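6-phosphogluconolactonase structure dump, as promised
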Amino acid sequence: MEVNAHLIWQLLANVDRVAEEAGQRILIAANQAIQTRGYFRIVLAGGRTPEQTYSLLTKADTNWSKWHVYYGDERCLPEADEERNSNMAARAWLNAVAIPSPQIHPIPAQLGAIAAARRYTEIIKPILPFDLVLLGMGEDGHTASLFPNQVHSPHELVHPIFNAPKPPTERVSLSILALSQTRELIFLITGRNKREAVAAWQRGDNLPVAQIRALHKATVLIDSMAIP
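structure tokens r here:
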């Protein structure tokens, strides 16, 4: 896999600085999109560092009425389950700001992976490209719920996942194709346990995280603990 020539790596001191920088970049992208197109479409990631970023955004000065929120992946759990990415984002951020509820689009993973993937494809297909996709990375180089050694149709925008190597095994994930249809892409990478995957990514291994592209701009915000 060719290393993304447009990928910029930005080293930051710690997880707090990664969260702060991500928040600032999200707001810059939002304000530019709203000024240019009249709306801002963002895809959210799960995980602790994104959660920290979301908490910071509760204090942001922006036109929330123009924001449209989507999700990169979701666990197939009951709708109210605290482990769902949509509920984490709601607790940390979305419940505290004035984004109109019809403009927040959780993945209906409670329907099961196949039905939810089909429904979410119908939601995202007409609105692509996104303005900004936010992604993390696991210790094995997975991103969203795209894990190493999985095989998916390259033409799908949303995949049903049945064999995730960490629980729950049934999930729904935007595909490489969908995640790459974004004007801007930001990866948040923090922690010593990510070093091995970062080294593999930088040497060009065919990890899921390495296959995501952006239409214009892609940045890795990484803390000092995650540098190999």
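The CA atoms of residues 80 and 87 lie 7 Å apart.
lmk if u need the other ones
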